[in-house]
Amino acid sequence: MDTSSSSSSNADVQLARLAGAIAEPARARMLSCLMDGHARTATELATVAEVAASTASAHLARLKEERLVELLVQGKHRYFRLAGDNVAAALESLMVVAGAPHAAQFKPSTPSRLRAARTCYDHMAGAAGVALHDRLHAQGWLSGLQSGSYELTPEGAIALESLGVEVDAVRRSRRRFACACLDWSERRPHLGGALGAAWLQLSLRRGWVRQELDGRALALTPKAQREMPELFA
After folding, report:
1. Which of 3, 31, 188, 195 has minimal CB crowding within 10 Å?
2. Cα atoms in the Cβ-side hemisphere of radius 13 Å centred on 190
3. Helical H segments across 99-189, by residue range
4. In 16-51, which positions are buried (b, 16+ CB within 10 angstroms) versus exposed (e)?
5. pLDDT at 68
6. What is the DSSP letter of 104?
7. Above 60 in pLDDT, residue 8?
């Protein structure tokens, strides 16, 4: 049998399966909703798709089977997001062809003080934590963005050591070194693990953030923006 013909046939079948998964209106609404990069619960996606919870679960199982979405488990919570940049790019192209408007932006209901910056166990969360996570990657200090299990690059290790993070001590910690921790207000990852905890402690010591006395809220200080504009501005 001609192998090229077989490969073409398999590709045709897979394309048809993907098209079928996307073509159902409720699933299409779910995928469009996830285009903003924020993860959502099955209940939220059921509301967006205007279907019952049980029906939403079936739709999400189909999308997960076709590797269009992936499941994230954060404690007792379960979230769904697009399975990767290639999925987002394909959906964006289809939306352009379809002339579809952009989906509504994600609007969290978290109180503004906690949404801006807060602690998540022992590391920084909220909009400031998510922004920090993104900037550490943009600076080239962290690798492993796609996997969610992070490692310092040589440049990142040097930079953090120069700022006061004892990287070797962090590595000896009996916990995961660095990882993506899904932020419950922003629905995007912030930096977790031992490195995230060490960064928060460094930020407190250097006066870049201040912990509020009445709860988990953090406040970014003007000093952070003066001394570390590439990470805190």
Report:
1. 3
2. 27
3. 112-116, 126-138, 154-163, 167-172
4. eeeeebbeeebbbbbbbbbebebbbebebbbebbeb
5. 95
6. P
7. no
177 three-state secondary structure: coil
Q: Is the pLDDT of residue 3 over 60?
A: no
3-state helix, strand, coil in the chain (%, to 5): 55, 15, 30
Q: Please, what is the Cα angle at 154 between 142 and 221, to 5 degrees?
A: 55
What are the Cα distances from residue 185, in Å, to 53, 102, 223? 22, 22, 25
Question: Tokens for 222?
Answer: 């003007």
Is the pTM higher than 0.85? The answer reads: no
Q: Where are the beta strands (DSSP E) in the chain?
A: 69-74, 77-82, 118-120, 123-125, 142-143, 151-152, 179-182, 189-192, 209-211, 218-220
Helix axes of 3-23 and 25-33: crossing angle, nearest 10 degrees: 90
> Do 53 and 42 meet the contact criterion of CB atoms below 8 Å apart?
yes
Which residue, chain included where needed, has tokens 């903003």?
36
How far, in Å, CA of 209 to CA of 203, rounded?
6
Helix axis angle, 42-49 relative to 53-65, nearest 10°? 100
**Sorting pLDDT into bands at 50, 70 and 90, what band is 202?**
very high
